[in-house]
Amino acid sequence: MLRYAFSRALSLAVSLIVASVVIFAVIEVIPGDPASYMLGLNATPEAVDALRDQLGLNGSLVSRYLSWAGGMLTGDFGLSYTYKVPVADLVAQRLWVSLPLALYALALSTLIAFPVGLIAAARRGTVTDYGIMGATQLGIAVPNFWFAMLLVLVFAVNLRWFSAGGFPGWSDPGAAIKALTLPAVALALPQASILARVMRSALIETLGQDYIRTARAKGLSRRQATTRHALRNAMIPVLTIIGLQFSFLLAGAIIIENVFYLPGLGRLIFQGITQRDLIVVESLVMLLVFAVILVTFLVDLAYAAVDPRLRRRA
Amino acid sequence: MKHLTLAAAMLALTAGMAQAQQDTITLGMVLEPPNLDPTGGAAAAIDEVVYANIFEGLTRFGPDGAVLPALAESWEVSEDGTVYTFHLHDGVKFHDGTDMTAEDVVFTLDRARAEDSTNAQKALFTGITGVAAVDPLTVQITLAEPNGNLPFNMAWGDAVIVAPESIDTAATAPVGTGPFTFTEWVQGDHVTITRNDAYWGAAPALASATFKFISDPNAAFAAMMAGDVDAFPNFPAPETLSQFESDPRFKVIVGSTEGETILAMNNKLAPLDDIRVREAIAHAINRQDIVDGAMFGFGTPIGTHFAPHNPDYVDLTALSAYDPEKSKALMAEVGEIPALRLMLPPPSYARRGGEIIAAQLREVGIETEITNLEWAQWLEQVFGGKDFDLTIISHTEPADINIYARPDYYFQYDNAEFQALIAELGVTSDPARRSELNKQAQEMIAQDYVNAYLFQLAKTGVANAKIEGLWENAPTQANDLTGVRWTE
Known about the structure:
The complex is a heterodimer of chains A (314) and B (488). The model of chain A has no long low-confidence stretch (mean pLDDT 84). In chain A, helix 5 packs across helix 8 (173-207) and helix 10 (222-251) runs antiparallel to helix 13 (278-306). Chain A contains 14 helices and no strands. With 314 residues, chain A is mostly helical. Helices cover 79% and strands 0% of the residues of chain A. The termini of chain A are close together. Chain B has 488 residues and is an alpha+beta fold. Chain B has helices spanning 2-14, 44-50, 102-113, 150-153, 217-225, 241-245, 275-284, 287-295, 324-334, 348-363, 375-384, 416-427, 431-447, and strands at 24-29, 59-61, 67-69, 72-77, 83-88, 128-135, 138-143, 180-186, 190-195, 208-213, 231-232, 250-265, 300-301, 340-344, 368-372, 390-395, 452-464, 467-468, 485-486. In chain B, the strands form 5 sheets. In chain B, strands 11, 12, 13, 14, 15, 16 and 17 form a 7-stranded mixed sheet that branches. Chain B has a 4-stranded mixed sheet with strand order 1-10-9-8, with helices on one face. In chain B, helix 12 (416-427) packs antiparallel against helix 13. Chain B is globular, with a radius of gyration of 24 Å. Classes of the chains: A mainly alpha (314), B alpha+beta (488). Chains A and B meet through helix 2, helix 3, helix 5, helix 7 and helix 12 of A and helix 5 and helix 11 of B.
């Protein structure tokens, strides 16, 4: 188990270094100068040059890469060009919106998908199964932003149960959770549809395995065989999907954050790109890469926990 | 809970009970300011939060664009026009409790015109050779040559008075002299400002105001409808304005801005260095189609680079009236030209307007190749690199016809006669002569077909019907809250 974990950790480190070089190179190549963006149409060339100096944009690419990467190792992500505050503070502030939102959506999606997938697999070929398959097909097909706008129209504009968006901060946890509810539902439903379908097919596949027949033959009921043997074996594809979904929810909620004007990581990255706040974009993308790699790493470890064969093989 | 209080409020109202006047407001804004220091960045969103609310200058713009006294009660000019003496208001304090004196004015202006200044409108301060504090309430500004525009220049958000003690934190915690103090900024969500009880002037009616940042047009619509924001002075979804107009809870505020929206042409690059090609393009454009198609009918057609609400404006639209036959005749004279590169920045007036213009130009046989650019790319390639044939852009700075006197400006109009005209304007303070020169300048650029002048950008806002005192027009980009109040 330890050797397995170590080999996974090594590949994690290598991925991070490669990612940092690629991110830096790509973002520096994009045309557009942050200083002239900030100073606008009437700026004199001297003022732009003075600002470039202040921002440290006049150094060579290599030295700028090294100071950026070196800074990150010591936890210093640099100073945002436009906001003029440390990137770490900006990200921490936004993480308090994005992380709870991602967890909330993931919890909803899992809570919906597990029972639904289980029922569909257990009632395979019945009307219930067809109904569930149809509903999940719809859930996958409907884009989450469209669904989000529908939720806003119904629950905010017409019923006025929720506000149309925004985030009041965590000083009042009740209000904060309420503000995250519509976005979490909008994010969770498509994810739940995918997860339920994966759950169903994984279960159906394992239910057809020889060991299930053996378990049934030794006297277990269909339900007992499913919960004791099939469920655990069906977990590997399900865990993979949950891992991917968490990464998606954390990094990919840009559109939902725009619909509900939530001050999350997605909005920050979007603003950073349009304003050419390169340091924010670079550090944030790096952080998201780190999060995705970390989640993958944790999912790898979780595989090993549910499947003893993986532990021995490594 | 919100509904209970709402229901209770309704009950109180129907019962005819006395009700406390609402004194807070939430305003929607499309863009979040990158920082809150108006002397260190060009973003209009900075001024939309801080101008006249947190920071004040020696002079200020009124709602109609007139230059009014602010921190300076009065000023006079020396005989030769090169020395301005500003008399400061007595008893003005910064929000941190320190006195605002002539020394702060000297610090502000010296900082803005310094070698390493990062002021986005540094040109406002060129020509100033010295700033001196005569006594704590008197400042003398010495100019290299007479400049009738100085009081106007001092009214800009980029020229507000700041203090040396607090300037280092201005980006995140601005300290000014205005009627509101900065309270908090939750980045990505909102900025809150609170009434300054120690304000030197008339106290505002509002106790506090919150600026909420909502960039998505659909979200802005939902936020207005749900009552999350009370007013949206620059509403991003003009297609929904008719819905607000028919709803008695709201009022729609349509005004004018300083934004001359133009189809800019690269005057030095063939084939646009030929005036016949530029004239052909100007006559090929049907302005009303663009206003209707791209702006949902909001916007006033213009024929030169000047705001129609300015008293000196000359209506020159007839000079470039829609006349496709004339365009075709001119193009027949010129002969075949290659497809022109039309570079479009992100605003919808440019993207939607660009499609319509491309279609209109095709009608007269001029082909275009459309490229959509992000702002940062546009600034680098079009504005900085002058690597374009045509582009659409709204010039939102007030009274900015003088950009045509800069031969290195991106559309590269180089006319010595025009430059002499602007130079004379700079040193003229007689109002009648200034007005005459402004008119001549407008006519000259229209006759030279420097750019195709499309329309004056409208300011379309939505507000709760009970709010009054919001600016209708936008002589500068600001949300001046000093006169805003709730009526019952």
